[in-house]
Q: What sequence folds into this?
């Protein structure tokens, strides 16, 4: 439940526009490379101007790749009530977003789906697309 | 009898010395020692807190540690030796990272102390770092969050400013010799003004993870009477300009000249904007000036993604359009500048945005970057502390601007109150900043006239008129509200955690490689 609260807070952060972005989002991420990933949280990096969530993702051949997922800034998360402990290591999440143009396992996570099926908006640098219902 | 006379004489002399001391120290209206001004150490503590002889890139100096010994635990003493051996690469300052406290206080860079009854701000020449010290009993909003510069809460004990600094991370060093601490460090700083031009600066350092007992450093801060404002030393931008990672734009950087095929600049063009009404109940300072001090967040309406109106751009927020003059909301670009703005939106140009490198936002961008900021109103100044780790110092004493060849990221800002509106004129820009992430163009030739009008207790209407004959055909004006909130400005360690720049560089390099193959 606490995780749900945290992601709801992420949504509000985006909607208010206080994203604390510091680079051209479209320059870093590729709108022709949408990604859907399911993985286990290995680290939450509490940083600015972007916080990062790292997840281990197993591909079709069974190899595990650690993906870096960009979020909004740690300071915005703080002001919305998020704390580091809210996304513990081992949590399984599914994300939808866009991969970095340089082809590395890096993505901007726009949506995060939790194990109970709820789909939450967690975009990093922009408010689009932001039409999804917020929990 | 002789003994008693001597004792009385001692008492008398002590009393006299205190009386002289009290007279010699400048004081604020509320009677506290007035620390305001520009200060710097005259020692070599930033190389090594202990007495040391010279090494390559290390000036010799006498120590500032009381007893000239740091009481390391055995493992930590070994770690310090390893740090020393690897100092060229391991020193956080070698990467231009935030120096932390207390190191920032004794680097070879001046700093400006600003003081009100509620807070003290220290703004540093080094990379435009600031410290925001609460002295009005404010409690931490976000305890336990580690920061490179820690969290500073102060109080006055008689004539001594005592500051407790906690919530450090374990990434900073005390000096270039690898003396270090853990994230459990607790500092107690004492600022004691000895005379008009000298502050005794003493710090008690406690860290049970690293040391066997508390220890103390003590040194003098000297007023820098030869300078009336501090300039900028942007560590990382100097590195990247020198090694070519951040490339000069000859069209906008100082001393670019007006292109020959520019349209003439119509300096007198412009419409009269609606007069703003100031509510009767806005807070005011003792002299009647509006009290605008506090935390604000601009309602920038997507200005960081475009100053004109935009919608339906994939992966970019909408921009409501903040240009109020010209009335059509379209920026009066010179042809080359509009073409440049369009080009800057191509993915390989994302690397060229200075803020992607964590450099300063400039003016007016620092206000809508988007990140919050804090206004202070110490006597004779308005100081803006930007959470994106930069600041603006606005002088209200009617001084002239800097000489033309002194060029700064944030420019040189001189202001005055006209009625209830703060009017600020900024010049001396270096022309390196972009106006936002989509590359709205501005050059070093810009003069920015800003007005800050507190229309209510919780809102300032901000207008900025940009006159730039290199990039535009006429002056233009943007407008947006700044909303006051009950919040604290935090720290943005941008460079230290910049995971994005490498990706943007890959995109640029790949583009250039493809161009070269064609």
A:
């Amino acid at each position: 439940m606490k995780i749900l609260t945290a992601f709801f807070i992420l949504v509000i952060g985006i909607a208010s526009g206080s994203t604390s972005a510091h680079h051209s989002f479209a320059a870093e991420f590729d709108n022709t490379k949408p990604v859907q990933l399911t993985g286990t949280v290995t680290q939450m990096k509490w940083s600015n101007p972007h916080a990062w969530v790292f997840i281990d993702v197993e591909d079709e051949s069974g190899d595990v790749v650690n993906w870096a997922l960009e979020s909004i800034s740690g300071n915005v998360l703080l002001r919305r009530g998020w704390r580091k402990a809210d996304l513990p290591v081992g949590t399984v999440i599914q994300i939808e977003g866009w991969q970095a143009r340089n082809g590395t396992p890096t993505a901007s996570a726009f949506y995060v789906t939790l194990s109970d099926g709820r789909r939450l908006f967690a975009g990093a640098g922009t408010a689009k697309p932001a039409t999804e219902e917020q929990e | 009898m002789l003994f008693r006379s001597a004792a009385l004489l001692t008492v008398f002399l002590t009393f006299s010395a205190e009386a002289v001391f009290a007279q010699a120290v400048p004081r604020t209206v509320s009677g506290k020692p007035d620390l305001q001004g520009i200060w710097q150490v005259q020692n070599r503590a930033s190389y090594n807190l202990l007495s040391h002889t010279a090494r390559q890139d290390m000036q010799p100096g006498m120590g500032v540690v009381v007893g000239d010994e740091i009481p390391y635990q055995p493992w930590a003493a070994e770690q310090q030796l390893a740090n020393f051996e690897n100092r060229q690469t391991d020193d956080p300052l070698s990467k231009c990272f935030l120096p932390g406290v207390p190191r920032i206080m004794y680097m070879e860079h001046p700093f400006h102390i600003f003081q009100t009854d509620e807070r003290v701000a220290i703004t540093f020449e080094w990379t435009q770092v600031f410290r925001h010290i609460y002295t009005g009993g404010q409690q931490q909003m976000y305890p336990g969050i580690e920061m490179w510069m820690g969290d500073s809460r102060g109080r006055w004990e008689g004539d001594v400013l005592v500051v407790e600094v906690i919530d450090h991370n374990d990434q900073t060093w005390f000096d270039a010799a690898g003396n270090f601490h853990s994230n459990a460090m607790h500092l107690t700083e004492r600022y004691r003004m000895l005379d008009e031009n000298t502050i005794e600066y003493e710090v008690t350092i406690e860290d049970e993870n690293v040391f066997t007992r508390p220890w103390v450093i003590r040194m003098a801060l000297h007023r820098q009477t030869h300078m009336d404002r501090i300039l900028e030393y942007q560590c990382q931008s100097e590195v990247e300009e020198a090694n070519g990672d951040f490339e000069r734009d000859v069209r906008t950087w100082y001393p670019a000249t007006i292109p020959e095929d520019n349209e003439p600049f119509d300096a007198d063009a412009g419409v009269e904007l609606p007069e703003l009404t100031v509510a009767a109940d806005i807070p005011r300072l003792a002299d009647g000036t509006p009290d605008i001090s506090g935390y604000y967040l601009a309602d920038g309406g997507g200005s960081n993604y475009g100053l004109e109106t935009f919608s339906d751009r994939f992966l970019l927020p909408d921009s409501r359009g903040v240009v109020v003059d010209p009335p059509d909301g379209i920026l009066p670009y010179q042809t080359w500048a509009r073409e440049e703005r369009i080009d800057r939106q191509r993915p390989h140009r994302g690397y060229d945005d200075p803020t992607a490198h964590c450099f300063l936002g400039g003016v007016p961008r620092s206000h809508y970057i988007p990140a919050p900021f804090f206004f202070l109103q110490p006597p004779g100044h308005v100081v803006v502390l930007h959470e994106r780790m930069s600041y603006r110092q606005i002088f209200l004493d009617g001084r002239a601007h800097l000489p033309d060849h002194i060029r700064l990221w944030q420019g040189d800002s001189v202001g005055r109150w006209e009625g209830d509106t703060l009017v600020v004129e900024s010049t001396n820009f270096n022309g390196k900043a972009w106006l936002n992430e989509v590359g709205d163009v501005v050059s070093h030739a810009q003069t920015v006239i800003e007005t800050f009008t507190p229309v209510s207790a919780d809102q300032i209407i901000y207008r900025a008129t940009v006159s730039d004959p290199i990039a535009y055909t006429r002056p233009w004006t943007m407008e947006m509200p700044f909303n006051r909130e009950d919040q604290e400005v935090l720290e943005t360690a941008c460079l230290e955690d910049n995971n994005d720049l490498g990706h943007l560089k890959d995109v640029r390099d790949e583009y250039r490689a493809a161009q070269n193959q064609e």
Notes: Residues 23-223 of chain B form one domain. Chain B has a mean pLDDT of 94. Helices of chain B lie at 2-24, 74-85, 87-90, 235-243, 335-343, 501-517. Chain B has two domains: 23-223, 251-485+499-504.
